[in-house]
Structure formats: C-alpha cells, structure tokens
Amino acid sequence: MLYALGRYQADAGAELVYSVVEGDLRRLLVEYGPPRATTPAYPFHHLVSDGVWEVRTERGVGSPGTGVRELRAGRAAGRLAPELRAALRREPSLLGRMARVLLDLNFPSSLHQDLCDAVGLELEAVEAGGPAVSGRRQRDRRMRELVLVAYEYRCAFCGYDGMIDTSSVGLEAAHVRWWAFDGPDDVDNGLCLCSLHHKLFDKGVLGVGDGHRILVSQRFVGRSQAARAQVTALAGRPLLGPQPGIHPIAAAHRSWHTCQVFRGSSRAADAG
Asked: What is 199-241 written as a DSSP string?
C-alpha cells in the first residue's frame, strides 16, 4: 500500500502493471516484509478485498487470484480504488496522513524514512505538522530517557557512549517488541542502542537470545574489518546493562523479536 501511495504521488493517473512492478514489490517484501516467504502477487491481489485497490486484466475488472503466472499472463494492472482516488483529489493531505498511519502501525520509527525513500514517498509536509488521529495509542515520551538512564547512556551491544558537550549523541531507545505491534513503553521492553545497532536490531541482523546474549544473523555478510568488529564479533557477547535494580528485557518481548524480526539462524560465537 505504501508503494501504491508513492506511485500515486508521482503520477496520479498511472496504473501499476504487475509484471512491471513485480521486481520492486519482491525487493520490498524481502527487505521489509515478514520473515515468512510472501510472493508479490499476494498483496497485489488481496488489497482488493480492503476496498482501497482495484485490479484489471485483459478480461476486465477483477483480479485473477494470487497466482504469479495468471497475473502476468492477463497483463494485470492495479491502482487505487476510484473512491480513494477521488478522496485524495479532494483532500491531497490525506495521502500523507494515510502513509503516517500505515508506518506507525506496522514499522518501528527507525525504518520510516528508509521505507519512504524505498517507495518514493515525500512526507516532509506531513512531518511539519498535521491533525492528530483521535483514538490512537499515544507513545510515552518518557521512555527514551528512562531507557538511556537504565543502560547508563551506553549502547547495550557495543558500549558506545558518545556525548557532545553535556548531551548524549547517537544513542536511541529501541523497542524490543515493536510499539506498532503492541510493544509497551516499558524499560523491560527497551534497549539503549547506538544508531547503527538500533537499525541492525530493527532489521533483524541482531537479536537477544537466552542469557541476554547477542545474536547475529548468519545471513549478515560483512567482509570489512569494520563490519566484523561492529557486527559479527558481537555474536555470543552478553548485553551491557541494565544497571542493578532495573529489570532486564522481559522474556516475552525477547521471544517476540526472535520469532518476528530476527532473520534466520544465529551465528556461532567467534572462538578467537
């Protein structure tokens, strides 16, 4: 859906021919989709049932199903449903608000800009201000400070603790179970991580295993000395912190991240 909104923003009148966009959709699913394998045909077909998308083939309106061959053979093309296109023409800011809701409900904030870049969405105007959506769960703004204090202002993976003047820089509070998936704003669902390791944690390169030891995905490849030192060498190391008296990551949140985010099997610790 984010891809469709990005393409609509670029050319409101264009249809997305499945065989043309299939490669883009596949790359997005590999990088940002669920751990289980999903073909690009699945969302292309099933968005129709949500009432926001329509598919046409050479035979007329209607999707031929989730079969890749059928979508290709029928020259299937999709675009936003007529009612939604009309609403976007009446109220252009609706596109940005829709995109923000989709991002907030499905992805951690550290991936939002990367996703927007990947699908071609320009949301700067929305970021500058817009009406709040009533009834949505609100984040606890205190969480960042509580987590950074708990981990004594250092990255739990690498120990980075940089400051500029009297302020920490490059340190972030990461949700273990993503806020978008009902992860609470609690310290036992948080980690203080540097910007690099926060991104890698949210991408499933890094995780936290039994005994609060760091997991590194076997699927990660980094041949440089820097990649080895900053990522692969972390495999099997214990987390740094939290300080005594503060609850570590709850087992349920660790399990969620391992099952839903961490990619593949973990690397063995480097015996050297």
From this structure: HHHHTTSEEE-GGGBEEEBTT----SHHHHHHTGGGTTPBP--
Question: If you average pLDDT over every residue of the chain, what do you get?
Answer: 90
Residues 200-227 pLDDT 10s: 999 999 999 999 999 999 999 999 999 9
Q: Which letter, b or e, does each residue of 17-27 get, where b requires 16 or more Cβ atoms within 10 Å of its Cβ?
A: ebeebbebbee
The residues that bridge with 164 in the sheet, in sequence order, are: 167
| Cα–Cα dist 148/36, whole Å | 33
Strands annotated E in 74-176: 77-80, 163-164, 167-168, 171-175
- For residue 264 the two structure tokens come to 């593949």
Domain boundaries, the chain: 2-127, 143-260
The pair of three-digit structure tokens given for residue 271, joined into one six-digit string? 């015996």
Q: How does residue 131 score in pLDDT terms, banded at 50, 70 and 90? A: very low
Residue 161 CA to its chain's centroid (Å): 25
Q: Residue 143 is encoded by which pair of tokens? A: 């969480």
What are the pLDDT digits (tens) for 60-114?
888 888 888 889 999 999 999 999 999 999 998 899 999 999 999 999 888 888 8
Determine phi and psi for 199, rounding to 5 degrees.
-60, -45
Whole-angstrom distance, CA of residue 189 vs CA of residue 139: 13
What are the structure tokens assigned to 82, written together? 């007529």
Max CA separation in the chain (angstroms): 67
DSSP helix/strand/coil, 249: coil
| Strands of the sheet with 77-80, listed across from one edge | 16-17, 77-80, 53-57, 60-61
